[in-house]
Amino acid sequence: MGRLEDSRQVPAPGAASPRGVLYPARLPTFDRLPPPDAVRQLVRWFWIPEWQIQPGRSSRQQLIAFPACNLVVEPDAVGISGPTTGSSHRDLTGTGWAVGALLRPAAVPHLVADPAALRDRYEAVDLPDLHERVHREMTGPGDRQSRHRRAVDAFAGWLSEATPPPNDEALLANAMAEAIDTDPAIRTVEDAAVRVRLSVRSLQRLAGRYVGLPPSTMIRRRRLQEAAERLRTDPDTTLAAVAADLGYSDHAHLANEFRSVLGLSLSSYRQRVASEDGGVRQDG
After folding, report:
1. What does the angle CA 135 – CA 141 – CA 145 come to, to the nearest 5 degrees?
2. Closest alpha carbon to 217 in 140, 75, 115
3. Is 151 helix (H, G, I), strand (E, B) or coil?
4. Which site among 4, 98, 213, 226 is 20 to 30 Å from 82 CA-CA?
5. Are 267 and 251 contacting, i.e. CB atoms less than 8 angstroms apart?
């Protein structure tokens, strides 16, 4: 992919690697910052990578993305990446940075006409004021932490000016996404509908308008993230135990879904992660 789009899963400095990052040993320097209060209903968090890759080398960042859109400022552009349905990657080269906002559903209709049309796509957007504000702070004086904090404040200031306060439906969409992402007991669309007190059909309409993915896909992505995380962090657990704990009907069901998204088997992924634990691979 030509643009950085899914680094929303990266940890804050010193934090354990969260769901979604498939090869944590490859990560360059990232910060993840909480949103200021003014945009807390619009942004889940801001993420800022900076990298310096040796000439002739590259660092592949591969992810199972959260089901959401990102608004991203880079040195030469602003873009929106839509929700993804497979794994995604970006090969980092040279020197660069990005400032991204993992958008909550409430922000999406004000920035994207149809999030479903943006699935698995990046689209450049003409937002010169946002670019100028963030670029100025990222390239200004100060250490990394102070530049990043100023960049987030500038980004949040633009968002609060450009986006009206969420209405009740938008807040319900936020609650839906939060429930699906954080509650492991939600394993079916019916579970999610009961949790947010909507009919299945109303839940599907809400997800389509504010996320751009069906709720069933949102649930599957969380479970795949959790499966990958278990395989990385618990080397003694069996593949069958992972499948059972995550509510899959059997090991084969999880294995087939994992392969369809990542293109490799559960055991191959576990072996690949183990081989990289000793250091950062920069050759992709």
Report:
1. 80
2. 115
3. helix
4. 226
5. no
Distance CA 162, CA 159 (A): 5
- For 250-267, what is the HEC assignment? CHHHHHHHHHHHHCCCHH
Tokens of 116: 């479903």
From the list 104, 58, 100, the residue with the least C-alpha distance to 81 is: 100
**H/E segment holding residue 77:** strand 77-81
CA dihedral 211, 34, 131, 212 (to 10 degrees): 0
**What's the DSSP call for residue 154?**
H
- Round to whole Å and give the CA distance between 47 and 152: 9
Q: Is there a contact between 200 and 224 (Cβ–Cβ < 8 Å)?
A: no
Return d(Cα 117, Cα 114) in angstroms, integer. Answer: 5
Q: What does the block give as tokens for 275?
A: 């081989």
Are the C-beta atoms of 189 and 215 separated by less than 8 Å?
yes
Ordered per-residue pLDDT tens for the chain, 284 residues: 344 444 333 333 333 345 677 877 776 677 889 999 999 999 999 999 888 878 888 777 777 888 999 999 999 999 999 999 887 777 777 889 999 999 999 999 999 999 999 999 999 999 999 999 999 999 999 999 999 999 999 999 999 999 999 999 999 999 999 999 999 999 999 999 999 999 999 999 999 999 999 999 999 999 999 999 988 888 888 888 998 988 888 889 999 988 888 888 888 888 888 887 644 433 33
The count of other CB atoms within 10 Å of the CB of residue 169 is 14
Provide CB contacts within 8 A for 194, sequence distance 6+: none
